[in-house]
Amino acid sequence: MTAFDNRITRLFGVQYPIVQAGMIWASGWRLASAVSNAGGLGLLGSGSMYPEVLREHIVKCKAATTRPFGVNVPLLYPDIEKHISIIIEEGVKIVFTSAGNPKTWTPLLKEHGITVVHVVSSSKFAAKSQEAGADAVVAEGFEAGGHNGREETTTMVLVPAVADAVTIPVIAAGGISSGRAMAAAFALGASGVQVGSRFVATPEASSHIHFKEAVVGAKEGDTMLSLKQLTPVRLLKNAFAEAVRNAELSGAQKEQLITLLGRGRSKRGMFEGDLAEGELEIGQVSALIDRIQPAGEVLQEIWEEFNLVRKRLGE
User: Fold this and answer.
1) Residue 277, helix vs strand vs coil
2) Which candidate, 20, 19, 12, 15, places its Cα nearest to that of 4?
3) DSSP code of 276?
4) Which class does domain 7-206+288-314 fall in?
5) Cβ pair 30, 64 in contact under 8 A
6) List of E strands, the chain
7) Could you give the CA distance from residue 60 to residue 313 in angstroms, rounded to a whole number?
């Protein structure tokens, strides 16, 4: 595949402006290195890793690829200071931050020569990320799996709004699993895309095979946004999601929802494969994913279709 030259490929030093999302219980060193080796940017999902586990994955990723990779860091993580220290100590060059104030850690990361990208759900927070010194932003729409913005703005609306609000590069996310969607994102003002759900359905993802098969089997309408009183999260519908929905409809308070959620619910679902009582975070685009295939093959298909669409539109 021919390399592509734009603001995102130059920023990260990669061949293609395609980022693999740093998802909890899915984005370990095998997935991140496979995507990086294929020419995209692989990310480790540190949100489900204890500090020393994160260090282990960074070390293994460095051994598995000579190409750039990064770490996604949810800023609400309880041991965030340890994660940041390990990232600096291990010489990670790219960090994606999310779920928090970019002003908190961006200056320190930048002091150590790290490229910083912040995930946002509104043009307001995109502007704040730029002011904080972020090198780029991910504009993640309401369609995305996992934790979502309270604004519930769709990708089609969010990406152009963010592109108009900042001068730094914009990476589109939420509902993107194909070259067609990537071309649409570029038409809206993005310089790159971040793909999550489709990379869950790969052999290299560390998530449980039962979860991968559930993603492949998902149809339109099989996901829902829930837990809005805590942190909004998009889930695949199952017994647990239905229990949350019923609790919310009955007026459950925040404390009751925390009790219902309990501990380790996402690990139970996505990593251990409990499809009934586990938390199964995935995007609406799961309805368009029809098979489990290698990560490098996924990236190649997206890139080739993107170029076919660009050619067709040009004609």
Assistant:
1) coil
2) 15
3) T
4) alpha beta
5) yes
6) 18-20, 42-45, 69-74, 94-98, 115-120, 136-140, 146-147, 170-173, 192-195, 223-226, 233-236
7) 42
Backbone dihedral region for residue 180 (phi beyond 0: left; psi -120 to 50: alpha; all else: beta): alpha
Structure tokens that stand for 203 in this block: 């052999």
- Predicted structure pTM score: 0.95
* Dist CA 298 CA 304 (whole Å): 10
Instruction: Report the helix count and the strand count for the chain, using DSSP H and E.
Output: 14, 11
Q: Is pLDDT of 83 > 90?
A: yes
Q: Please tell me the distance from the alpha carbon of residue 236 to that of residue 215, in angstroms, as a whole number.
A: 8
pLDDT at 290: 96
Q: What is the pLDDT of residues 145-170, one digit of tens each?
A: 988 888 889 999 999 999 999 999 99
Strand partners, 234: 146, 225
- Within the chain, which residue ranges are assigned CATH 3.20.20.70? 7-206+288-314
Cα–Cα nearest to 223, from 280, 141, 152, 147: 280
Question: Which pLDDT does position 146 carry in this prediction?
Answer: 87
| pLDDT, position 1 | 63
CA distance 293 to 298: 7
Secondary structure of 150-193 as H, E, C letters: CCCCCHHHHHHHHHHHCCCCEEEECCCCCHHHHHHHHHCCCCEE
Tell me how far apart the alpha carbons of residues 17 and 8 are, in angstroms, rounded to a whole number: 6
pLDDT at 228: 80
DSSP codes of every residue in 119-151:
EESSHHHHHHHHHHT-SEEEEE-TT-SEE--TT
